Amino acid sequence: MAPTIDRERLFSRVRELCAINAPSRCEQPIFRYLQKFWLERKESGLTWETVAVPDSSEPANIIMRLEGTGEPLMLCAHMDTVPLPPGTVTLVESDGVLRTDGSSILGSDDRAGIALALEMIDLCLEGAQHPPLEIVFTVQEELGCLGSACLYRSLFRSRMAFNLDGETSVGTAITSAPQKGRYAITVHGISSHAALEPQLGRNAIRLASGLLLQLPDGQVDTYSTANTGTIAGGKQTNVVCDLVKITGELRSFSKELFTKHRTYIDTLVSSYRVPSGCSVEISWEDVYAAYAVPDDSAVLQRFKNACMDMGCSPLFLRSAGGGDANNLNSLGIQTIVFGMGMHHIHTTREYVVWEEIAAAAELLVRVVFRIPTDARIVP
Q: What's this model's pTM, rounded to 2 decimal places?
């Protein structure tokens, strides 16, 4: 029999975690919160390990483990949020809804996921039969999943994982997400005095503008999107600008189409005609690979069975965004993103509904603690 969640304990943790100001690269307060949680339970068999992010002085990824019976299972949530203004996060609670006073995000992405993972650990330690658990808390997810990119396969026994980071409704799971790459284009012009010797200059802003208009933008095909994110250059009005930097991104569910559009951008840059003494360069960062979890995978079957046990029909979705699930799938750990019922994430209108958080926890209990004895699958 599946254990019963402690609703007040769960809700209290969500409140505590959402009140902590800890955006990307400033996760130390959440790290300390999780460390305190572990220290209070380490005598019960909960273990602790960290995996650092290279060239970062901020907290490392955390891995907690519990031994159990059956097939190992991973849960994952991230410690950071998108940027927050300095100071405290002011929570407002009414009619079963938690939000802020409108001066900041709530940060349920992904504080709610952390709270659910901790509730599962406590239910295990209270005596519920459970599989071996590997609970991963990552850093810098909002910056392009930099924390999970530092994980490696030999750290884990699990072959399946649930990423507790879905803004979608309870009973949904994201099973597919695109590949993402970022580019940086540098345009070099020639500097001169804009009034005394304008003829000697070559304005990098004007050179860049022609290139910019030819870059792919928006929904470039059914499976791919592109966006110009930033453009920066120039110092003052009496100096001909000699340097402009453009950054952008490319995403695609198709590896072939991603390669096609990247090749087009590279060719455009390499063939872009500029005056003598000027140049254009491009560099790429591979952020994460695409994934598509097969319909017959064990992780989808486990989720379907949990939904059936709870009396709801599962819904599988494709997301145009990416997350830690991309990197975990790249490690060969079949991972789906578990719908948490978050609303308006990354905005000051963000909120969560307690009954939806409780429903997410009830469904996760059925995922974690029900060790299937048959091969039932919801059609």
A: 0.90
